[in-house]
């Protein structure tokens, strides 16, 4: 059986810049050796303008994107578009592990509140503790008394459940309603990959912990 390391591109000695780009593409998730070659040779054949736009987009991603000072979502404006939207229900905060989870939930149009991104989940086995995720920022937000419900939308796997339990223990004593999205999401699944119907049901079926 071929493993991922077997799939590393076998690079000819010449054509250094091509090899360099193949090597860099190969480091990206979901890009195997063949795809990396295809992308590199595609760019080589394409007008230089396309390469420039790609390079600019990659650099802009790193240079212009910061974390929202309110919800810790990735953003190019601070506060982010969701936090600064007065149409949203700012009394409800949905807690997610990753910024991509917000995209999945927004796609359902089933949630009108605001978010908080933890950038991870508590995982003692991986050495990730409460201080390693953006938890302090959340607790600061909860202090002003404006928030009446916290919706825990961490992943339906071991780390996500552990994090939800931990947050519940921390937040429930503050007199804030804590709910957990659950129904419809199979255990072990990641929010990012759930379909709209499943996610909408999970949101609507959220329960007090
Ligand atoms: Zn925000």
In short:
The chain is α/β, with parallel strands linked by helices and 209 residues long. It is built from seven helices and seven strands. Strand 1 and strand 2 (74-75) form a beta hairpin.
Q: What order do the SSEs take from the amino end to the carboxyl end, as H and E? A: HHHEEEHEHEHEHE
Q: Which structural class is indicated by helix and strand composition? A: alpha/beta
Number of DSSP strand runs:
7
End-to-end gap: 45 Å
Low-confidence stretches: none
Largest sheet, strands/sense/barrel: 5 strands, mixed
User: What percent strand?
Assistant: 5-15%
Strand order of the largest sheet: 4-3-5-6-7
Number of helices: 7
- Overall residue-averaged pLDDT value: 88
The shape is elongated
List the ions, cofactors and other small molecules found in this model. Answer: zinc ion
CA-atom Rg in angstroms: 21 Å
The percent range for helix content is: 25-40%
Could you characterize what this model shows?
This protein is an alpha/beta fold. The chain is built from seven helices and seven strands. The strands form two sheets. Strands 4-3-5-6-7 form a five-stranded mixed beta sheet. Strands 1-2 form a two-stranded antiparallel ribbon. Helix 4 links the parallel strand 3 (89-96) and strand 4 (113-117). The longest helix has 17 residues, at 48-64. The radius of gyration is 21 Å and the shape is elongated. 26% of the residues are buried. It binds zinc ion. Zinc ion binds next to loops.
